[in-house]
Amino acid sequence: MANAYDSDFSFNQQLWYYYTENRGKIRFRYNDLTRKFLSYNDREENAKAYLRKPQFEALEMYVFVKEFMNNQQVYEMFDDWRKKRNRFSDASYYALEKGGQLRLGDDLTEKQTDVLFKQMKKYCESYPNYIYALTMGLGKTILMATCIFYEFLLAKKYPKDKRFCHNALVFAPDKTVLQSLREIMTFDKMKVVPPEYARVLDSNIKFHFLEETGNILHTIDDSDFNIIISNTQKIIVKKKRKAETPGQILFNGSGSLLSTVYGGSDDDDDAWDDSTLMDNQRFKKLCRLPQLGVYVDEAHHLFGADLEKQIRSSGATKTSLRDTINLLAANTSIVACYNYTGTPYVKNQLLPEVVYAYGLRESIWNGYLKDADPIGFENVKSDEFLTAVVTKFWERYGGKTFEGLKPKLAIYASGVAEAVDEVVPTLERILSKLGIPASAILLNVGDTKYTKDEDIHNFNNLDVVGSEGNEKQFVVLVEKGKEGWNCRSLFGVALYRSPKSKIFVLQATMRCLRAITDERLTATVFLSKENYDALDDELHKNFNMEIKDIKNTTKDDRHKYQVRVLPPPKTITLKRVWHEYTVHEKEYSEPVDFGLVDADLSKYASIMYERDSIARDTTVKETNIDSIQENMKYSAFSLTGEIARYLNISCVLASKILNEAEDGVDVILDAVNKYNEVLDDIIIPKVFHALFEVTAEKKTEDREVVLLREPKDAGYYEFSAKDELVVTNQYKGFTPEEIKKSFHADTYCFDSIPEKECFMQYIASNRVSEVYFTGMFTSNQGDLSVHYYDPESGRIRQYYPDLLAKMSDGSYQLIEVKGDNKIDDEVVRAKAEAAEEMAVASGVKYLMYAGSTIVKTHILDDDIQSNISF
Known about the structure:
Layout: H1 11-21, H2 23-29, H3 32-41, H4 53-68, H5 74-82, H6 107-122, E1 129-134, H7 140-157, E2 167-172, H8 175-180, H9 182-186, H10 195-204, E3 206-209, E4 226-231, H11 246-251, H12 257-262, H13 274-287, E5 292-296, H14 299-303, H15 307-310, H16 321-331, E6 334-341, E7 345-346, E8 349-350, E9 354-358, H17 360-365, E10 371-377, H18 382-397, E11 408-412, H19 416-433, E12 441-444, H20 453-460, E13 474-477, E14 490-495, H21 503-510, E15 522-528, H22 529-543, H23 547-550, E16 558-563, E17 571-585, E18 607-611, E19 620-624, H24 636-647, H25 651-660, H26 665-674, H27 677-691, E20 692-706, E21 717-722, E22 726-728, H28 736-740, E23 747-749, H29 753-764, E24 768-773, E25 786-790, E26 795-799, E27 803-807, E28 812-818, H30 826-841, E29 844-850, H31 851-856, H32 862-867
Parallel strand pairs: 1-6, 1-9, 2-4, 2-5, 3-4, 5-6, 10-15, 11-13, 11-14, 12-13, 14-15, 28-29
Antiparallel strand pairs: 7-8, 16-21, 17-20, 18-19, 22-23, 24-27, 25-26, 27-28
Helix pairs in contact: 4-7, 5-6, 18-19, 21-22, 24-25
């Protein structure tokens, strides 16, 4: 049974697909001001648009959810989507095809969507809650500012429309990120807002930056267009009960001065100290602002390790951000909460509240971030580690500049003492041997005894050309690895000691990925083996990827290729295959053998493993502790009733089956009462099969499959590949007749030599009339995919075969190329079985070639073809 929902089917992807397919019709419905705002930021309409593609796509989704979906809760949109209602219905003006584009395929996928819907509904808040996931370095702060400016413009023009925010509360997780949010105040609005409207914003927006604990919030009650930037500690309501002084008693009461200043006496007899009163004043001021939008920056860091709990009120503590927002919602009108994060995964599962995501992998591959080369060191001492790190860093980056900036290496120490007494002296000796002056070292450890004001000034100027900060290339740090520190010239990170928090390894690594220049560059991450493993684990949990996914993704021998679709669109008619199951009743005719007499029930036993001492080399003892199990005790009468209720049969029939069983009713009762699981695992299934028969019927329907669609937002697709694995329709080795056989795109980027060799053999063969490389096109680029059940994850996934060939006799072949070591892999077999079933139903032959077979033989020879199977 499905108990999780595959990220391949994540709702945000389906929502984006629906929007892009209907973009023109949807934009036509928007307010005129909204259309102008989007056009100003759309590079297809305004070549000078400031926002990057991921930022603009997130803005598009932000507007889509607000103006087209009317600020629906995510679970409400999802329920409409899965049930094809309202906007998503077949009858809707926006339906993509008859029957809807959102066919879910089979029973398992239906169950998964039901599981996800129940999760969404269970954790929903009283207000809409959305997550916009853009990885670090893509400009979440600018995106947030743009969204707020859009809100205020529309609220100014349509003041009675409840969909728009009239005020914005921006939360930061800590002081570092709080400082980075100043960019909202200083950002040039005309970069994202048409100049004629930017002036309107300038004359109306009022900024309130709550940096210090003692700052009073100076907002006017019931006013509009306030942007309050703070963190939860400076807003949250806290109470400290303590004994009242005579002065406090004097000023207590409904008519006191304090009551007048701070908004009434609703605190009964609670006494408040000064800092608590300030906190409460800010909170009460916020409660008097209408149409409040809450914006949470770096949400993943703010919620910390308990993201899944903290982002949802049911698991939040009374001091959490979520509880603060819920308190605000209970006291004022919150339009929605917008969470911006770079890590929207919990245990590699995408949070269902995500409505737009642009991940780390895509950001690196598409050049928005540097690539990374993580290097792990095992069984080396700290000074040996540092020597290897600095030497390799200097070999790779020494003497180079990027946009006039010298490359920097951040070296993390576990504490101030280690940084000062161990790292810096060792680093000075290493630099001396390399002929690098010690003045290239910068120490920033958060202790004024060692880090002076000049050091902080230089640290802030690391990215300033011509400054002394730019001359500092080896930066020794303690903990400065979290959000808010932006250094584009950082090309290396070294972390030897294991930090207290594993997430710090990921955070420190991410610091060196910010892009610099238009060239595709690679940073280097130096880690101990323990930290290397920790990074792999954190990438998996926070980005649903592994080190291998980023390591060497863009080596020197890989280049970007622009791949254009060639008309007319190539299509093939294939069968959609599914199974329908029918249950038929049958007469109970013979006694049931439950097989309990000699059954091995040890798998149900409770075992305790015990070792006498961890200081001595003693053996581990195993003890059966079945006695602690809390099993229900059945009688023959109650067991009969349980079976009858479960299978909806008469108690008389259930009793007859038990009493006539070959095992005997006493044996059955002993087994069930010892281990209650026996009832569900053995008794119920055996009785079911004695009374019912299940038949399966395979059904199919024709569907026209488009091999490749035109990209929606560009004139071409972009791929990265090794030059020797790229074949174009201009290749001089092809005859004109061979070129006519293929190329639904002008360029094919193969992943391996066997893939390329397979294509070359097919295109040259007289037995082949057409052949197309399809393995490079996935997601929404084409329709040629196979749904299969992944036995490892227990989820439904999509698989994209490598090639499609039409033979000279008119038959088709669906082709997969696999490494020899993968042929018998369980997941590969599952893909092949699903593809074979679909292919057979469609009259197509499915072939899986081993890589060695392709490179050593002519695979289209009769003897080879006859021996090939999946």
